[in-house]
Write the structure tokens for this entry.
Amino acid sequence: MDFDWLPLFPLPVVLFPGTALPLHIFEPRYRQLLADSLEREERFGIARLPEGVAELELPPGTVGCVAEIVTSETLPDGRSNIIVRGMERFAFASFVSSPHPYHVCSAVPVEDEFEIGAELDTLAERVRDVFRRVARAARTLSDDPDPLPDLPEDSASLSFAIASMIDIGLDARQEILSSRSPLERLRHLDGVLSAALGTIVDRAQAHTLAKTNGRGAHLEK
């Protein structure tokens, strides 16, 4: 990956490594970015653009994620619906002059600190368990029979996968993306999920009981 010449798509979203994100491409300059990326089989970067910040004022050091195009559907009017998958992270350094109508930047790769140990393994298992409980309750409330998604085995990927699936704000998402510590990310998620667990399970139990006139099974907290 050439981080000295990275086509950039600033957006009010956060893409995490290993996760999928649907995008609707309609601006002519980003239609060209898509066409170039498909033709050259290249990836591009997605960086979260804060509200009220102009694209050319993107703060140096902003952590983004390289996007790989998984599927692309071109509509009759030239717009496209695509799905991208997050790859490695990068930190935006500066914009680079280019002949293209879209932005190109230089960046530096962002990698996790090396962390191992019983605390990390124990916390990863706890977050995995609490997420499953919250997700089961949420699906009960929405009468969604689909099975829960598979979760990655390693702690770093687990933190990004769960962060992509829970309802947290963009600032929190950006904080998780920017963190180089899997342990720190999992602690953050543990706090969010644990705070929601009791309430959402109680609501799901009430929902189930209401549908069965009080004869339904209880969900595990």
